[in-house]
């Protein structure tokens, strides 16, 4: 097996992965989650206690005030399990043109006040739904999760999400689905997957704005599952073989500042899983302002997990 490191692969193609002027402020509010999904790179779950407090949230809001971002992206774990999430949403209101909350759908159950705040604030949702097959979803997430996810999607439609009144049409409430493969293989093309999802969900009367497909990153719980199933080496070899140099210039890490639950700054959620702090600053409070347009940024810390973001169509 060719075990060339990702860093050496970049050099071999005459490429560098440098930070550009950030346009996305990603905030991980904690690793607590109501699910323990097999593909989770952060190993989020019900037993995790790491959670962002108001002091760090205030630093996040202060950063959004002093450095403009086009998008605020709230993630977890399940962000809904952070009791101070409404405080952060209120603080970020109006500071970015676009705002999105990541959800596994089930964590929204019973949170009517939060749904009302999200709707009033024009927050879009990034809803994780691994597949349109009940067996695959329940196998990754637990028995009964698939049907409950579809029930929540239908409710979100009824509340206004996914009805074509998104940011591009002068409003918010976009509903974007996110699909990850259920096993040790790469996802189909985004266009093919979107067609499959639309056909399946149309039959249930469910609408959504877009579908994003991503390869699972061999970190955390997913890496442990790969090792236990004897597929880790073959999966990593597939990622290396599918390396696409054309996507490096558009990788999401170039334009993201990712804030961890404790205020540490990363270049992406995956580097956060490994504790690889950002190339621009260690703490969110230390980042003062964006560099000038066109300025050459520092090199982003990389590892072999980066192959997952550059396989095929990439993670851009």
Describe this structure in words.
The chain has 316 residues and is α/β, with parallel strands linked by helices. It has one domain (22-231, 254-306): Alpha-Beta Barrel (TIM Barrel), CATH 3.20.20.70. Helix content is 31%, strand content 11%. It contains 10 helices and 8 strands. The chain has helices spanning 6-12, 54-66, 85-92, 112-120, 134-141, 145-158, 190-202, 220-228, 232-241, 269-274; strands at 24-28, 71-75, 98-103, 124-128, 175-179, 210-213, 256-259, 265-266. It has an 8-stranded mixed β-sheet. Helix 2 links the parallel strand 1 and strand 2 (71-75). Helix 2 (54-66) packs parallel to helix 3 (85-92). The longest helix has 14 residues, at 145-158. It is globular, with a radius of gyration of 19 Å.
Summed up:
With 316 residues, the protein is an alpha/beta fold.
**Any idea how many domains?**
1
Average pLDDT metric: 93
Looking at the overall shape, the CATH architecture is: Alpha-Beta Barrel
What is the succession of H and E elements?
A: HEHEHEHEHHEHEHHEEH
User: What share of the residues does DSSP label as strand, in percent?
Assistant: 5-15%
**Multimerization state:** single chain
